[in-house]
Design goal:
single chain, 21-stranded mixed β-sheet, eleven-stranded parallel β-sheet, 4 helices, elongated
Length: about 375
Amino acid sequence: MSYTTIKDQSIQQLINIVDESTWANKNYMETYPGSHIYDLINVLKGGSDDYLVWAHEYSSLGAALADAAGTNKVLALAGPFDLAGTEFLINVANTKILGFGAYIYNSGANVNAFHVNADYVTIGGSIVINGGGSYTIDRGLYLENANYCQISGLKIKDVYKEGIRLAGTSFSKQNHFDDIMLTECGRDGASSSLMIYVSDNNTFEKIYSISGGAASHGDFYLVQSDGCHFTDCRISGAAGHGLELSTNTYAMSWKGGDVGGCQKHGMVFTSGARCCTVAGAMIHMNGQIASNTYDGIIIDTAHHINIVDSWIFPEKEPGTADAFQKQRYGINVNVGNHNILHDNHIFNNLTLQIIDNGTDTIIHDNALLY
């Protein structure tokens, strides 16, 4: 098998590999906003002496993964790739996968696209995962007992269960996720776009979810998972709540970003969640399933939740009355101790801007407009 290095691979060769006409019948551009060629150019900046192992040159996915497990090798995916009922099972530490306009689909029995069961795995570049009209991919990415992984550049659409799931008997911890789009995930009606279960200290940056999730809980759903941090993430049009923290989830932070147009609550802190912060967020246009029933943020049996410097309003555009104006309360402290609401802009919610039935709640310097 002949190899090329990332550094030596020319941009023209990459463009030849990824012909725009390939995507004509695969809704590629629908799932990925912008030209993937920019991703390919960014891959080459700075270069690398790692060798590219081209998956399409092997007789089986298993053989390609085995060869790519060596030192200074990267499994390269380009163009359409049919899972054919076999998932990418990554169980060797330090495996690296790089997409050059890759498009992953599945014509066989339902499987996960990527199933990571090893530490220090890197998946990046430009990769689209599409479950198609029959939703034949269960999960776009499943990290099980996987730690210290770097995941970026995925566009996951129409999967049957979660777009991304983190879980494991011994945690999946200290993983970083960046620049990922989740579109209409959770097609089974019971799964979230992003599920974090018993997994600690993971970071998420620029994760965007559109029209996904289960009606019964959060589109981003954290259960017994501590120290997770979200920066500039967005949840739009979730089937249930936007973000939900449950079952003793501690020390989450959400900075910036947007949670809007969800059918139920925008953010939910419940079941013993504590010591969490939301800062600089926009929470708007939630509770779309029923007027004056759901809130921008609800704190229900959660403690030491800090909501600061955020904008919370019911309309699509602030201050403009429209058909989306359905949020009941901006912030609802239903049950909880020592929660802090500070320096927020909250206006035009249908019943009240803030309602406080908690204990020792600190409410200070908020701009409330009716």
